[in-house]
Amino acid sequence: MDDITRQCARLSLHTKERQTIPLTSVFETNNRVLVAKLFTKRRVNVEALSCTLKSMWRFVQDFEVRDLASNTVLLLFTHEGDAQKVISQGPWSFDKYLFGLYQLSASESVDDAKFDTNSFWIQIHNLPLSRMTKVNATAIGSTIGRVEQVEASPSGECRGRYIRVRISINIEQPLCRGRYVELGGSDPHWISFQYECLPIFCYWCGRLNHDERDCKLWTDSGESLQKNDQQYGPWLRASVTAVQKPQLVHTKAS
């Protein structure tokens, strides 16, 4: 959209094109609207996708799905707050690929939607029990992305096998596998991260917006890289003992 605006700015406009059209005041917000992107190269049948979403999102009373082309759709919800419910219960995946969601501001158009971030529940492992506090979890999580929530008991307790933190991360950057922390000893201590409901991601570069076959590292090597050269793997996926939210199932391509 910015490119189109810059191109128009260089044009010589005739009289009618230079006229300004007054618009009515904005009373409608985008609270009931989401733009969604399917991170798969398979062409998706939007009608079948709509049926799948409505079957999956039973907690949402009603919504409409409109095709925006290029595996991008507009989700129009009937009731205020349903869009936020869908976002808060993510991440979602389609055909095991990431299903990105974006809520537009009042001044944005669908072309302004950005799909460079997504929220995940991340488990922080190998942290000494005495250091498993909400403050430390927030400090660690903020080095990965924007911390949205730290799972804790009503009393604020979060000690256990690991700490769960919901973080909005940049999916255009490699997944963070862990961090060194200082515990007061002579050597730093390594803590590891695991991601819940993690969709397909690239084992070569650790990014979520493509898989191994579409990675530049793989194609630039002439597809000669070996599996033992991979710096990422399925061990980044967290095991969750609680009942997990099912993923979006694959629908037939049109």
From TrEMBL:
GO terms for molecular function: nucleic acid binding; zinc ion binding. Keywords: Metal-binding, Zinc, Zinc-finger. Pfam families: DUF4283, zf-CCHC_4. Residues 202-216 form the CCHC-type domain. Transmembrane segments: none annotated. InterPro entries: At4g02000-like (IPR040256), DUF4283 (IPR025558), Zn_knuckle_CX2CX4HX4C (IPR025836), Znf_CCHC (IPR001878). This is CCHC-type domain-containing protein.
